[in-house]
Amino acid sequence: MTTMTGILDHDRYCAEVLAEADRFRQTVRGADLTAPVPTCPEWTLEDLVRHVGGAYRWAGETVRTRATEMVPFDAVPEREGPPADDPAALDAWLAEGARLAVDAMREAGPDAPVWAWAPGQRSGFWPRRMTHEAIVHRADAVAATGAAFPLDPAVAADTIEEWTQLICLITTLKPDHGLNRFLGTGRTLRLHATDTPPGTPADWLLDYTGPTPTYHHTSDAPATVTVQAPAADLLRVYYRRLPADTPGVEITGDRPFLEEWLAAATF
After folding, report:
1. Model's pTM, two decimal places?
2. Alpha helix locations (H) across 80-230?
3. Please, are residues 123 and 104 in contact by the beta-carbon 8 Å criterion?
4. pLDDT at position 175, please?
């Protein structure tokens, strides 16, 4: 079974939770909160903010209480946030939720027994997961606001790494998932990041040759289709937050397979 091992360490993930919360707040600050989010068609920008802020408080409560099973959402204090029509209060609530979560994560350290929805995990699962949760939803906010999307390539590489690990867990967590139809087809999807620093993965080969999906860090094996781009753009294509035909994204090989894979890659 794929393990959920990160590229960064616990302290860095905790720092990134706070940094990403600030970047997310900057992205939505002053924007029209009633605006639709193109990459989350049923949400407004305010819905997106409340989702991220609620996730911080839920994750923080999970770690703080050393929960041994899933914490019900309605049991999380202040999860829904302040009343509508007060952007400043919403911004403060979001910042506080991130801070409370990180306080709990730092106090717990990476190895405390804590419930997580991926198997075999401990408290260190949560700062990593919340880092990437906020990154992907900042990409949603960028789609709604047109803001820039700055991101350290090493952090972007770990976002790609985590999503690949989650994709490989789908056969266990969701046996009826649409991606399972690719199993045994012999097809492979390669991602290549053009700007990751030395010592950080730059290549991921997602392999559907056998009865379960696997992945490898390799640039040598042939692939059915390859997607190449700077890491921040690559992760957005991979997460379906950026069109594959965006300038600077290079696709070689079986493009219909890529499109079919992306259409099925929900979690």
Report:
1. 0.95
2. 87-108, 125-145, 153-173
3. no
4. 87
